[in-house]
């Protein structure tokens, strides 16, 4: 039997319960709020509700009571949170506008809507401590079994929502004046990796490094069919006019779930992370000073229910700050650990072609422009036959050397290469 491993130092993990997708990420009144998919009564998936943690520095997190509870007829799936500054919903007042959670209701057989998913609202008038479910729910119902994961944001005078028809591999975009009445604006997809369900979309504007320009980025999480196998996140760079997202490039669509790690078509897409354990990546609303900060679930649905963690089963990635780099062949997302993380949490290496270093048994190797991470045979890896793996990524730039930054925690490793243009994130139970 695999031994159990302790909770991490730098990564958020609940004390004793199951956790998966981050939800409702928002910076409000000087506090970072992390809501997330939670099973309040067990360390395996089920009874989906919204857990809640807060931080003032993105490093130290405080776990709070469950924010949104499941019922006998409804599970509370992923979603987002916004500050309704103008009180467009009417849930608060002009003097005290509400926080509003937009979430997917997954209706169980006991519900008149059993077997379907629709979008619902809840609101808080005390900064996120207590929530009231909107009596008029659901606010958006397509009669679909797989319509979920709304991410809402303000654009001009309107609210915009991106959600997914998961099994159709489509992002659906809606507009609203008040978060209550929604009108369909456009549909994007299928495109690029489309072998598995599309989940947890995010659409945001982000700065282009070294310029005064911005571009729009659409994150689309995918399970299965990601570049390292199982769960993962891809992204598209393009334009958004308030109604439709137009990508800069579409290379083709892959729907083959049997494609391996080395498939050239799969490799040609833009991947957020080349490791096995970075999924459901979403960004914080209202991050100060124009920052774009994201967190992902550090796990993979291939083995999520089996990972040998003591207490809460799952961790989040460290928060990462994003911008774009303009290369000859287009734009590339750049990810860096947030500046609040202590410097001594990070170790920096310069790797020359042919170099191979061991980090607590994990092999990190660089050869002719390819960076690989190999966790096979390291620590506890016998809980699932697909856990012991090697991942790799092509690194942009000259192939002679690469700079890497490594964060190792009690049960994970995150590698940031080429100033963060390549990341590889893996659970490792040392």
Features:
mainly beta, 1 helix, five-stranded antiparallel beta sheet, Jelly Rolls, 49% strand, Tachylectin-2, Chain A, 32 strands, 2 domains
Walk me through the structure.
- This protein is an all-beta fold and 430 residues long.
- It has 2 domains: 18-339, Tachylectin-2, Chain A (5 Propeller), CATH 2.115.10.20; 345-427, Jelly Rolls, CATH 2.60.120.
- It has one helix at residues 264-267, and strands spanning 18-28, 31-39, 49-55, 62-68, 74-83, 99-107, 117-124, 132-133, 140-144, 147-155, 158-165, 170-176, 183-188, 192-193, 197-207, 214-223, 232-240, 245-247, 253-254, 279-283, 293-298, 315-316, 320-327, 330-337, 346-352, 356-359, 362-367, 370-374, 390-394, 401-409, 412-417, 422-427.
- Strand 16 (214-223) and strand 17 (232-240) form a beta hairpin.
Write the layout of secondary structure elements.
Layout: E1 18-28, E2 31-39, E3 49-55, E4 62-68, E5 74-83, E6 99-107, E7 117-124, E8 132-133, E9 140-144, E10 147-155, E11 158-165, E12 170-176, E13 183-188, E14 192-193, E15 197-207, E16 214-223, E17 232-240, E18 245-247, E19 253-254, H1 264-267, E20 279-283, E21 293-298, E22 315-316, E23 320-327, E24 330-337, E25 346-352, E26 356-359, E27 362-367, E28 370-374, E29 390-394, E30 401-409, E31 412-417, E32 422-427
Parallel strand pairs: 14-19
Antiparallel strand pairs: 1-2, 2-3, 3-4, 5-6, 6-7, 7-8, 7-9, 10-11, 11-12, 12-13, 15-16, 16-17, 17-18, 20-21, 21-22, 21-23, 23-24, 25-30, 26-27, 27-28, 28-29, 30-31, 31-32
